[in-house]
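@channel sequence for tomorrow's demo:
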Amino acid sequence: MVCDRCIAAVQRIVDGVPLETVRVALGEVELASTPNEEMLHRLAVQLRAAGFDLVEDRDSAIITRVKAAIITQVHHSEGRRVELAQLVQDTVHRELSSVSKLFSEVEGITLEHYFLLQRLERVKELIRYDEKTFSEIAFATGFSSAAHLSAQFKQLTGMTPSAFRKRTRGVRTALDRVGG
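structure tokens (generated this afternoon):
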């Protein structure tokens, strides 16, 4: 789940099963009690129908929590910089190396690359808003300079940020589809 609409959609699905929630947040639902197999099956079917997945195994839960933390950090914490290693440690209380290895095995890309893809998606969003300079966008998204941002952007998109600004308007990739 990556936005308030996703959280609301999941809340409606869980309420319709019906299950009592303690809280619904990005990437997680905390239930008031343990559901039986039938309820879990109904929940899984309804979540999949709405484009979500029910994550039950520990490794998938770790990856889901890390993805949600990255999305929150990149897309909802303007200008507040955090190192990826610290974000992972704070989120799942594990070292970056072990989570990165797990992430690569499950997702097929490195955690660092996923983080970069999310940052570049945020860059695209800020470029479309056309309210900040490239230097301000670089700072807001954790790049050391506009030149570093431009080099990374061109390497991954095939165009410069300036060319992107000229060619695109109003179309945005769903955040949960970025990087996997």
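heads up for whoever presents: The CA atoms of residues 153 and 171 lie 17 Å apart.
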